[in-house]
Amino acid sequence: MGRGLMAESRTCELPGLYIREHDQSTLEMWPQPFQLSIPVEAGKGKTIVSHLPDLLLITDEGFLVEEWREEARLERLASERPHRYFKDEQGAWRDRYVEPHLKNMGITYRLRSADEHPRIFLANLDILADFSLASTPPVPENEAIRLQTLLSERLRCPYLELLEEHGFKPEHVLQSVLSGSVYVDLYTERLIDTDELLVYRDEYVVLAERLAARSARPTSPDSILEIEQGTEVDYDGVKFKVLLVGKEKVSLVNGATGEIIELELSVVRHLHKNQLLKPLGLTVEEVPAAFEMVLSNKKLIQAAKRLAAFERGKSDSGMSERTWQRIQSALRGKESPHERLLALVPKTAGNATPRLPAETYEIAERTLKERFNTPIKQTLSSAYSHYVNDCNAANVQFMSRTRFFEWARPRTNTRQREGKRRDYATAPIPLTFNYGSPVHGVLPHEVAYCDHTPLNIRVRGRRIPIQSRPVLTVMVDGSNSGARAFFISFRAAGVHSVFMCLRDYVRRWGVLPRILVLDNGKEFHSHDLTQFCKLFGITVRWRRSAKPRDSGIVERFFGTVETELLQQLAGNSIHMKDPRAVSSSHYPEKHARSTLASLHGQIDYLLFDIHRHRVHPRLGVSPAQLDEQTEFELGRRAHRMVRYDELFKLLTSPHPRVATRKIDPQRGIFVEGVYYWHDAFKDARWVRAAHVEVRVELWNAEVVYACYRDKWLVARSRESSGLKGRFRPELAVQAREERAEGRRLAQQDKFSPATSSKRVKLWDHELWDEATRDALMIEHALYARLGMVEAHSEAINHEADVNYLPPPLLGWEEVPEDAYVEDSSIADGPTSSAHENASEAIDAPGPTAEFSGADSTSSAPSESNAASVPMQSADKRSEASDGSVAKGRVIRPAGNSRTKKDSAVPKAHLPPKQRLDDFIRDLDGDTYF
């Protein structure tokens, strides 16, 4: 329908949207369209019932409202409110309140169950969804003719045979299935089961096969008589049951009188042949509830011993005459083993009727509710003391302490005592039902899970000795449990972390996930992220709040990084989970040796060189092998490729707090306390209320991007002396300090000259936060080499040093001052004339615009010609000092030679290129660069 829709449930409402999206009779649909207030009779008066339906549909037949519920929930509602919900004779659910209310308005109402969803069809739609895009290239005419000719000759052909022996591409075959030129029954056949999938010429071939199979069906069971113990037969309206079967005779018991008769087998067959004896089938005795209750009881063992002794014989049983007679009487007429065993179960359980009065249990229930199952978390002993006092006050007999504890423990409510998180962690894990559509997806880049976590390690800075714990953001593919992208930073997790992770995703793979699974963090509900996902057609799925098992794949991935890497590095803070048990000599700050760059390189190597090529226990193969197999069988889908260029980096640059700004023709646009100017804003004086969309550059506080007259412009700060070389987070920290200082000074002297002079000093370079500066300089130096920083070449931060990386430690010694060689050509940044004019416009048609400056050949994200994905940014600093280019890895020196003199790495301590297991053992915090 060309627009995004919201659904409340993945397994209930969302499939309903998919089905209606592909329904030709549905003209329009609106989720959660309105809220109804229905007056109903309730007891002696009236009340109002509110109802918010799931879908309002405009179909060929008129207006239709649908409400989708889980079958179990409908059954529960029908039992709790039978006056409202019920199931009619046709098996359809009905609502006595809503249905007549909407019928008076001429609207049809349907209450639907989630069990009605065609799960196989929905799973097949997920696989074919990529081929329904407008950017999908058509099937070549010669390939379509060749496929139809082959199926016209053979009528059907196995899917894998078409790929392996006839050389068809999987994309062409699946597109033909979607268009209907070849046929696969999408309601019964699973496209993911490629080894069993058959492709037919048309649906009439399938219909003919089914008719042929039906005619060749074996003879009806009613015409076959199977004589075995437990078989029931009907003779002249009387039911008989087979007790014993011999070689020539059979014993039957009359179901009405219990009389046992014996017949020849030949007589039974003769009666059946003449249709006088009709088989009723084999009767399977249902196990009584009492039998299931004793399965785990010691009485079952005693009954089995009695039965075994009875079957040994009277002389060998060791029983008295009277005991033998009682057992013989109990087993009379019991033929099946479980009936005989149940008959011998001792019936000496005693009288379990409660002796205490009902008031005793009422007081106990009240005590548990008010004293025990509360956030105060009183002990059972304390609750029992209150219980005894309440019983004495009411003059009621109370339970013994042992009986009260036995009665109260099963009634402990963890949710009321410790909250929903603890209850979720300790409650039994519910069964997961397979709805036919795997929740983790089946295709590469179909479902990606994204989450953040602080890493349990301390890392070193350059000017600041020890920085804070870095935060890891990772995206994991649900289909193969392999990592797709990650981002580490000293800053707290936010929408910028997600955008940087998406940059890394496209930089490595040249494609974006189709479904993004996020938790309910504030950054995941950002308007910027939602707009980005709508632009690229990404479905966002938010998991339930405080339910980490919904994203178990990414949560387990964090555990893998911690146990396989962080736990082996010096300075890890895993043992600080119990800080009172750690001596000051073992604080991680005193042993920190890793830097952000070295940690990034080690995580990169673990995720993409080791874990990706290691056999996964859930899959039986490695994630890389599964990707290759899936791409061979279901296609690579190159039309979904996304170019990693300046346009994509612009779209992953966040908006400020308000996305649009009004242009001041004299000063420009006001963003986060600073005015930004571009020469094109001069014309804004002739435009009434000129507003522009604004995006900020995280890696350079001196510039912002403004979309003015369908062109993206690079606007520069009018206060360049104060912001030159600064990063956007630095400006945010400084703005907070300025506001705090301003409020404090305003309390003393609001308009005095002294106040103004002090505020001016806040912009002095010596007063900026050095810890924030050091962390951002390290991050910029790291990600500049990967081409993940400034979105445009005109926005490059020339004051940021790409060699600004902390030096590796030489064992535990100090690093000599002459151990580093700086390259002025790199430190000074690109010096071409293209960076001198900051007022050059960037042509772009709207929000999905293209840059008109350098590298302006990039196309919109959804165009089909975006198959080639450059893994190199326009930023010249993405090229390493030795000439290697950042593609899908952290830059490493080529071969085993040492890096050149112009890299900021100690000359005498450059790590050779070697395997990670040897490298981690000898690394001790050395950088990868």
Label this structure with key terms:
Integrase_cat-core, Transposase family protein, globular, seven-stranded antiparallel beta sheet, single chain, RNaseH-like_sf, five-stranded antiparallel beta sheet, nucleic acid binding, SH3 type barrels, RNaseH_sf, 929 residues, 16% strand, alpha+beta
Describe the protein.
The protein has 929 residues and is of the alpha+beta class. Strands 21, 22, 23, 24, 25, 26 and 27 form a 7-stranded antiparallel β-sheet that branches. A hairpin with a 4-residue loop joins strand 17 (471-477) and strand 18. The protein has 7 domains: 13-117, no CATH class; 122-212, no CATH class; 222-282, SH3 type barrels (Roll); 289-343, no CATH class; 358-426; 447-535 and 550-567 and 592-640, Ribonuclease H-like superfamily/Ribonuclease H (Nucleotidyltransferase, domain 5, 2-Layer Sandwich), CATH 3.30.420.10; 648-923, no CATH class. The model is unreliable at 283-296 and 810-929 (pLDDT under 50). Residues 440-631 form the Integrase catalytic domain.
What is the strand content?
Answer: 15-25%
The strand count comes to 27
Could you say how many structural domains there are in total? Answer: 7
Poorly predicted tracts of residues: 283-296, 810-929
SS field, number of helical segments: 31
Mean pLDDT: 78
> Pairing-aware structural class of the strands and helices?
alpha+beta
**Major sheet summary line:** 7 strands, antiparallel
What separation lies between the terminal Cα atoms? 49 Å
